[in-house]
Amino acid sequence: MKMRNYLFFLAGFSTMAFAQAPVGNNAQQFAQITGSIAGTSQACGQDVSTLSSRAAEVINLLTTVPAEQQQAMMVYEKALASSAMMQEKNHTMKCPDVLMAYASLPILKPDYKTTVLPAMAKMGTANAG
Q1: What CA–CA distance (Å, rounded) separates 129 from 69?
Q2: Average pLDDT, the chain
Q3: Is residue 78 exposed (0-12), middle (13-18) or buried (19+ Cβ within 10 Å)?
Q4: Is 23 left (phi over 0), alpha (psi -120 to 50) or beta?
């Protein structure tokens, strides 16, 4: 996939997700975007269990309030189900492109604990104060 198409692809995910994401809550915004990516990818045959468990790690870094963590996970699950259904019904994105983008997500790389998690922890800390 050309870089331009890849950027449009990711922008499509982000636009769908941000349209539904609550404003001012990084955990829920992250959950909405990541759940949308997971659902579309799952509809294309991708096992999303690794992404789901890592998304939970990030959500727990973005907020330490148990009720907010639970709410964000509910947002994730809802976004996953909604996006999967939309992809299955409408084939809104080409599956080869979806799977290529999925595989390139930084949160799925082996070094995510030293790259993604510290950046997300800073976002959570910034919102705590």
Answers
A1: 17
A2: 82
A3: middle
A4: beta
For 8, the token pair is 């449009």
DSSP per-residue letters across the chain: --HHHHHHHHHHHHHHHHHHSPTT-HHHHHHHHHHHHHHHHHHTT---HHHHHHHHHHHHHH---HHHHHHHHHHHHHHHHHHHHHHHHH--S-HHHHHHHHHT-GGGSTTHHHHHHHHHHHHHHHHH-
Neighbours of 38 (CB within 10 A): 26
Whole-prediction pTM value? 0.80
Mind listing the pLDDT tens digit for each residue in 97-115?
999 999 999 999 999 999 8
